[in-house]
Amino acid sequence: MIGIFGGSGFYSLLSEAATVEKETPFGKPSSPITIGTIGSKEVAFIARHGLQHEFPPHRIPYRANIYAFKELGVKHIISPTAVGSLKKAIEPGHFMVPDQFVNFTRRDDTFYEERPVTHISSAEPYCPELRALLIETAKQMNLPVHDRGTAVIIEGPRFATKAESQFYRGHDWDIINMTQYPEIVLARELEMCYANISVITDYDTGMKEDPSVKPVSLDNVVRVFSENNEKLKKLIFEVIPKIPEVRTCICSRALEGSRF
Description:
The protein has helices at 8-11, 62-72, 128-140, 162-170, 180-189, 218-227, 229-239; strands at residues 2-5, 15-20, 33-38, 41-46, 76-85, 95-96, 100-104, 145-146, 150-154, 175-177, 193-202. It is of the alpha/beta class. The longest helix has 13 residues, at 128-140. The chain starts with a strand and ends in a 21-residue tail after the last helix.
């Protein structure tokens, strides 16, 4: 099964969709889980922010969401997010498949708070095989895609100050977001593959060299994301049939040698 974080626009494209409620040791997921098929693949959807967008980024039940996917038998997770750009060349309307992240959140980010003490590797945090499929497919579709980059994950729900944004740019980081972490490490702890598709919606606090570029606003994020939603859905639905049944990536053996 393939897990996807997405809204109602995705559900309508599923065949033979059904909805299930899940309870996990970490509480309920953000939403009921919609399960259906795309081609020969079984797919499960969770609305990350809830069905009515009731969960702000710092209140999303991340552990419950990932654990529920695991209990359903999910092996691969595709995670679309709206992001701000920290570089002029990464333009609103572009896509990015990041390969690194920097975490500035303060969230519960492990399933292993007691024995056995567990230290997973995060050197390559996003699944390299799933990333490659997304990049290859995006290029075949002629989408403007950046095939690598570092995502800065902030706590939210507020947007960054100009000083914070300049700090991130000073480290040559690429995009900024509020929700990729801790999804990514929680998936790795349960040996699931996780890849992100970032939809660039804005330039964060603007561009210093171009005063006409205004700081991010929620209205602008929603508008640009909506304009690219059909392209995003098509990309995901094109990728799903290509995902192999057998995994040879680092994610599938993430717990090997990680425990005392």
